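Hey, resending since the last one bounced:
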Amino acid sequence: MLGLYQATERDSMIHAAVHLHMFLAGCLLSWAVIGIDPIRRRPGTRGRLAALVIAAAGHDTLAKLMYAWMPPAGGGPAAGRQLEAELMYYGGTAIDVALAVIVMTQWYLAAGRALARTRRRSAVAGP
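The structure tokens again:
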């Protein structure tokens, strides 16, 4: 792992590839959690929120470890790493909250549609 970190510090292509990988992984998680396109066996609201909480906990733990531990030799100044860890922690929390709001809004709207369908069926069936 140390070798990859040092390689990202020396080679801008490897650095960009690692950033692209992280960005695409975040996009995939977001699609799985809030995607509106139909897929087979999409987890329910509880499952999607649980996945989001687990991902957020891992994300926050990584940011705290990055802040607290010194970088490997040749890994750049500690102040830069701490700034990056703070951005990761607070920025990630803002994104996690936004995703949770979207999931809960989807749940609320789906419950409203289900209630409206039930009312329509009751009105058609009559008393």
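Residues 78-125 form the longest helix (48 residues).

Sorry for the duplicate.
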